[in-house]
Amino acid sequence: MSVMTARIIHTSIARPWTEVYDFASKPQEMPRWASGLSEGLRPDGEDWVTSGPLGEARVRFCPPNTLGVIDHLVTLPDGTAVHNALRVVPNGDGAEVMFTLLRQPGMSNTDFERDAAWVQKDLKQLKDIMEKRQNGTEG
Prior knowledge:
single chain, alpha+beta, Alpha-D-Glucose-1,6-Bisphosphate, Chain A, domain 4, seven-stranded antiparallel β-sheet, 7 strands
């Protein structure tokens, strides 16, 4: 397999990075900000399962850690496995959240750009939730 085109999509959040990580790394909270998981995740052994337009996908998260890593492997109904690298790192008194989007084999430029915009929208939603918490308007 050749090296895929990659794009790092990121956002800065005015909240301590550990608070962002603690929230963002919980699979049960992800549907609140990760729109691709809007149907929710349900535990199934070591994996989590979500339903989508193509059927059920399995998601396996890396173990909780002190490094801000929220990597997860998504296995689609056809068996395709997609590694999603997601990081939360300190940025001053706040956090930087970074998602590495990899252009999958056979993906058009249009689809890659659409996916990048989707990820950016999701990270904005995470930012909005976390910064509203700071202002006491989100629980």
